[in-house]
Amino acid sequence: MTAEHITAEELQNLDEAKVSVNEHVLGTKKLYIESYGCQMNFADSEVVASILRTNGYSTTANLEEADLVLLNTCAIRDNAEQKVRHRLSALNKNKKANPGLKIGVLGCMAERLKTKFLEEEKMVDLVVGPDAYRDLPNLLQEVESGHKAVNVFLSREETYADISPIRLDSNGVSAFISIMRGCDNMCSFCVVPYTRGRERSRDPHSIYDEAKGLFEQGYKEVTLLGQNVDSYKWSSETEKYNFANLLEKVASIHPDLRVRFSTSHPKDITDEVLHTIKKYDNICNYIHLPAQSGSSRILSLMNRTYSREWYLERIHKIREVLGEDCGVSHDMIAGFCTETEEDHQQTLSLMDEVVFDYGYMFFYSERPGTPAAKNLKDDVSLEDKKRRVNEIIDKQRQHSAIKNQMSVGKVFRVLIEGESKKSREDFAGRNDQNKVIVFPRKTYKKGDYVNVFVNSCTSGTLIGEIVD
Ligand code: SAH
Ligand code: SF4
Ligand code: F3S
């Protein structure tokens, strides 16, 4: 989704608002699972569904028939947590109507609040952190015998490498693959190192096997996921892999398997990665490179460990190696501790220098226990935070329109992902640069690659027609 479809308020809710509800048909007991937050959480829910399937649970999209409801939660901003609190109050009614219903909280909010969750939300039976999902069958037994169950141990090794995820919510074309877990970066605003633990990389052979298996099942695109994919590293006695090596290994599966990845970190993205993207047509020309701020002073307080100049140099390098056509998007935080109008102007001017294709924009939300919460003052008023994020969104809207306009008159190779949201007569898919294109379906089907001529655009979408 791009910024221009949504208001500031909705944007703030963007990653929290996505909820997946899924259906599967095996087992006797019914699991209803909802995921909030980032793609890693959605990928984790697929691991959880797999673990519970071997324990007799099939997934259902119908809350009314569920024996177990799991919420896979996000703690990145306060409103992400509020969303889960509201959902739990609503679930209270279901529990009253069906006292046998068990309710569990998974993911980052479970990890942050631990047993406090059980004190604060009386209807919750089960609290499980992101590294403890293998223990779910045991914990559920405890719950069945009338106790509350908690496991929030973080691991230094767990990658769930051997678990074959059950693809929930899948369009059958595109799938996520977790390549690493945790984060060691300690950006001062961020709760993730506390909720996801230490960074660890998954065995590249299991990643390759998973991607190959997906391609053999008909999938045409995989997105490799990690909080900082550029710090992927894995070695055995005979082999050594960095992220560029892993990308190459996955890209070599088949030219028709598209490879995407997220998230890149400006301090770690290497020229080797850029050259690997260039070498393989099926590695998409698109990089999500969160900036967070355009002010070096603020970046330093955020502990991002790069400056404005470093960030701009990386953008310059991306365009030098991959050309102006490489899609680049950003994350930006408005109103971080001590941010002045001058700092804010620097964020806007960074955006002017780069002209991003799109972005995800938030205002700062203090997270308990983080370095910023401990050492810095959350001193920008809510009013200023909201005004600044709106100015950032307005600028991004203008830039996205410019970038989309530049695509008009060009032909792109598009992977058809399914029907367009607005019309059954149209298909929607994405091009190499991650831009959504809508076009009349003709005789093609989901999962086909087609060449599409772009004849017009809205601020968020390209519109075109298939050229044979
Ligand atoms: N690992 C990724 C970011 C993951 S969190 C990276 O380093 O880029 C996704 C985004 O949420 C971040 O990029 C940041 O823009 C935003 N974010 C994280 N913590 C936040 C907070 N406390 N307040 C507001 N936005 C936050
Ligand atoms: Fe959070 Fe920074 Fe790690 Fe991203 S790199 S998850 S922002 S600590
Ligand atoms: Fe949220 Fe956890 Fe992802 S805090 S953004 S679900 S890593």
Summarize it.
The protein has about 475 residues and is of the alpha/beta class.
Description of the molecule:
With 468 residues, the chain is α/β, with parallel strands linked by helices. It folds into 4 domains: 8-151, Rossmann fold (3-Layer(aba) Sandwich); 170-284, 2-Layer Sandwich (Transcription Regulator spoIIAA); 308-406, Transcription Regulator spoIIAA, CATH 3.30.750; 411-467, OB fold (Dihydrolipoamide Acetyltransferase, E2P) (Beta Barrel), CATH 2.40.50. Helix content is 36%, strand content 22%. The chain has 16 helices and 21 strands. It has helices spanning 8-12, 14-17, 39-53, 78-97, 107-113, 116-120, 136-144, 192-196, 204-216, 243-251, 271-279, 296-301, 308-322, 341-354, 371-375, 382-407; strands at residues 29-35, 57-59, 68-73, 102-106, 126-128, 149-151, 174-178, 180-181, 200-201, 221-225, 233-235, 240-242, 258-262, 286-288, 327-334, 358-363, 411-419, 426-430, 436-440, 449-457, 462-466. The strands form 6 sheets. Strands 2-1-3-4-5-6 form a 6-stranded parallel sheet, with helices on both faces. The protein is globular. The protein starts with 7 loop residues before the first helix and ends with a strand. Bound molecules: S-adenosyl-L-homocysteine (SAH), iron/sulfur cluster and FE3-S4 cluster (F3S). Residues 183, 185-187, 190, 192-193, 227-228, 265 line the site of iron/sulfur cluster. The site of FE3-S4 cluster (F3S) has 14 residues, from α3, α5 and α8. Monomer. Its main location: cytoplasm. Residues 169-403 form the Radical SAM core domain. Its cofactor is [4Fe-4S] cluster. Its EC number is 2.8.4.3.
